[in-house]
Amino acid sequence: MAKTRGTGLLMLWTDVDPPYEADFNAMYELEEPSVLRSAAFLDDVRFRPSPWRQKSSGGHVGRNYILNAYRQIFPARTNPVELTMGMSPYLQMGRMDIPDYLTVPGVIRVRRFVVIDGQPKYLTVYEFERPDVPQSAAWNKVRDGNPWTRRIRPHLRLDEGSPAVFRRIYPEEAP
To answer: What residue spans define the domains of the chain?
Structure first.
């Protein structure tokens, strides 16, 4: 079976115009982050995009286009079984992680990344079975049980819709 997980991410952050939302995919798993500096990526993807990529790039389908590369730092080693696991149906991106979130029903796995290029410096990807996991009592118990969270919460300002849970759109789920 082909690898579905790697130690790198390429994240595309943009405000997508409504007509393009169904066709737009923003997170790309990389076998390792060094692929972004390879001649194959730079020559064939970055600087000579396909006609489809040209048509669907952030400059054509939205605004506030930011492209960031990340390297996985947690877990330090990927379990070989996870390398070929199917893609999770729902994701939430954040900037912090607490291992206790792995005990919440519906959380499949949590991975933390450090930026190679761009900001924010850290990115945490929570993989969920269902989109309502962050509204559950178990999730809130873990979140509220951390004294640091209680201490900084009054000072946090989240953009509208953040954090958000995203449904995987590609590849489509099997029927």
So the answer is: 8-167
Q: How far apart are the first and last CA of the chain?
A: 20
Q: Quick check: 63 and 15 in contact, CB under 8 A? A: yes
Instruction: Please name the residues in contact with 130: beta carbons below 8 A apart, sequence gap of 6 or more.
Output: 89, 90, 106
What is the enclosing helix (H) or strand (E) of 56? helix 51-56
Q: Cα(107)–Cα(123) distance, rounded to whole angstroms?
A: 17
> Which DSSP helix (H) or strand (E) runs through 149?
helix 147-152
- The position carrying tokens 């005990």 is 103
Q: What is the tens place of the pLDDT at every residue in 27-73?
A: 778 888 888 888 988 887 777 777 777 766 656 677 777 778 889 98
Q: Rounded distance, CA 58 to CA 56, Å? A: 7
Q: What does the pLDDT look like over 134-172, one tens digit per residue?
A: 999 999 898 888 787 778 777 766 666 667 788 887 766
Check residue 2 and give left, alpha or beta (phi > 0: left; psi -120 to 50: alpha): beta
